[in-house]
Specification:
Blueprint (H helix, E strand, L loop, with lengths): L14 H12 L3 H8 L6 H7 L11 E9 L2 E8 L5 H14 L4 E4 L3 E9 L4 H10 L1 H11 L1 H5 L3 E11 L2 E9 L6 H19 L2 E8 L6 E8 L11 H17 L1 H21 L4 H12 L9 E5 L5 E8 L13 H10 L4 H24 L4 H15 L5 H13 L4 H13 L3
Antiparallel strand pairs: 1-2, 3-8, 4-6, 4-7, 5-6, 8-10, 9-10
Bound molecules: (R)-mevalonate (MEV).
The site of (R)-mevalonate has 10 residues, from helix 10 and helix 13.
Length: about 425
């Protein structure tokens, strides 16, 4: 059975019904949802073995991003996020892009950079030459440090050296990490080869660590939306399309806007990164450095009118994600997230996350360029406020819709509404 990510009306179902529908759509056993997610994927005893000074665990909603068609196949995106609207917005925008033929994505091989810093190098030119002359030997030493990775088809693929001035040089070992994010592998390589590198350079060993600016591991996504799908109320599709292009140009011209624009992209990307047990700090560090590579902080996704009149988005960024190792070893939710994603490699997971990032960006720009985001946002935020006021069960929706209709989405308004509904005869 070919899996589908089109599940109309999914949002109207109860959590139990959603598990039922999603397991059928994804070919999973419904009981796997219960087993993986009931305790948030991590119990206290395991958490205590994971980091230090543990006093408990901390849960977040685990949701499904729908409608993603990527390179002709359907994917459901696992999303862990606390912000209302993010999942609905990404799913809606993915449906628009589906209407334009779906996302097209490609990605670099999973190559990470292992950095060895050397300083007090008396003759940097001679040091660089000596290191390059011993390239073969150094690559062999790098591979010897990670035999398991080499067995899986990865390992050192290149070596480069840069003179940073003032007696500092840095050597980059480029390591193919296959389906791992690779931080541990790459750090191991750096530590194992550093002494020999310093000997060749006649310098002092400094830091030995990966670079999170993993610009050898970029993902590129494009997606189109026919303008007629963008119409909103009084506004024609072409007017909305053109407003989105102007919003993109605003971000391209202004780092203050580019920062917020990229935050909207990370609403989607981080949700997938977290749901699959990946390191979102690493992803953010790499992507923001990449966004600033021209010297001006810039948007990671831009929008233009294509020759056929469609709105066309293009996203490019480094994205180092793993489908093996890391937290997925111990976190049932993360392992389940990877199963939901249904990807066959770390590269495909990065492509999926980037598609959700583009969808989130499109949704934000469409809302901002038309009615603004507060209307939709407040309707969902009202639910959290209702829960904070003590509403449970059906009362959550009733309190939320009352305070939203009132235009006062505050805790005190929710408490009043709840008190009134509780005292009203049934
Ligand atoms: C809010 O989480 C994200 C937005 O601010 C993104 C944007 O402005 O593009 C809506």
């Amino acid at each position: 059975m070919k899996k589908t990510s089109r599940l109309p009306g999914f949002y109207k179902l109860s959590v139990g019904e959603r598990r039922h529908v999603a397991s059928a759509a994804l070919g999973l056993d419904e009981r796997d949802f219960d087993a993986a997610l009931e305790e948030g994927g991590l119990n206290c005893a395991t958490a205590d073995k994971t980091v230090e000074n543990v006093v408990g665990v901390y849960s977040l909603p685990f949701a499904l991003g729908l409608n993603v068609s990527l390179n002709g196949d359907d994917f459901v995106a696992p999303m862990v996020v606390e912000e209302p609207s993010v999942v609905a917005a990404a799913s809606n925008a993915a449906r628009l892009i589906r209407g334009g033929g779906g996302f097209t994505a490609e990605s670099d091989p999973p190559h990470m950079i292992s950095q060895v810093q050397l300083d007090e190098v008396a003759d940097p030119a001679a040091a660089c030459a000596a290191i390059l002359e011993h390239r073969r030997e150094l690559m062999q030493r790098a591979n010897a440090a990670v035999p398991g990775l080499v067995r899986r088809g990865g390992g050192a693929v290149d070596l480069e050296v840069r003179d940073l001035g003032d007696g500092y040089i840095v050597v980059h070992f480029i390591i193919d990490c296959r389906d791992a994010m690779g931080a541990n592998l790459v750090n191991t390589v750096a530590e194992k080869v550093a002494e020999r590198v310093a000997e060749l350079a006649q310098g002092r060993v400094g830091l030995r660590i990966l670079s999170n600016l993993c610009d050898r591991r970029c993902v590129r996504v494009t997606g189109e939306v026919p303008p007629e799908l963008l119409a909103e109320g009084e506004r024609s599709g072409t007017a909305v399309r053109d407003a989105i292009v102007r919003a993109s140009i605003f971000a391209e011209k202004d780092p203050y806007r580019a920062s917020t624009h990229n935050k909207g992209i990370f609403n989607g990307i981080d949700a997938v990164v977290i749901a699959t047990g990946n390191d979102w700090r690493a992803v953010e560090a790499g992507a923001h450095a990449y966004a600033a590579r021209s010297g001006t902080y810039s948007p990671l996704c831009t929008w233009r009118v294509a020759e056929n009149g469609n709105l066309r988005g293009s996203l490019e960024m480094p994205l180092a994600l793993g489908t093996v190792g890391g937290p997925s070893r111990v976190h049932d939710g993360a392992r389940f997230g990877i199963r939901i994603a249904g990807v066959t490699s770390s590269q495909q997971l990065a492509e999926l996350a980037a598609c959700v990032g583009m969808a989130s960006n499109l949704a934000a720009l469409r809302a901002l360029a038309t009615t603004g985001i507060q209307r939709g946002h407040m309707a969902l935020h009202a639910r959290s406020v209702a829960i904070a006021a003590g509403a449970t069960g059906k009362l959550v929706e009733r309190v939320a819709s009352e305070i939203h209709a009132l235009g006062d989405v505050s805790l005190s308004a929710a408490e009043h509404a709840l008190a009134r509904l509780n005292s009203a005869p049934n």
